[in-house]
Write a structure and sequence with these properties.
YaeB-like fold; globular; 92 residues
């Protein structure tokens, strides 16, 4: 959550979307990685066209009907990168 792009996107969200993100993060915190990958509500997806600057795979997940977030796995942690109102923009 220290990325400037993520902070800009987070603070630009409407309150209902901020609550949806926090609710989703609470849910994710209760799941192990295999449960996270399989959860149909989150729609966790590998973004084939994107990698981080260090070569880590980037993933996207849904946190509301309107928004997706991107992040990457670093050991036991999920590092959040960006938020997207347009679902397709998460994959570009």
């Amino acid at each position: 959550m220290n990325y400037l792009d993520f902070q800009r996107d987070l603070f630009a969200l409407e309150k209902t979307e901020q609550y949806a993100l926090l609710s989703t993060l609470r849910k994710i915190a209760q799941l192990n990685w295999n449960q996270l990958y399989a959860d149909k509500g989150l729609r966790w997806e590998k973004i084939e066209s994107k990698r981080s600057s260090t070569g880590d795979q980037i993933y996207s997940f849904r946190f509301s009907k309107k928004y997706r977030a991107t992040g990457l796995r670093q050991g036991d942690f999920l590092r959040l990168l960006t938020l997207h109102a347009d679902h397709d923009s998460a994959y570009v």
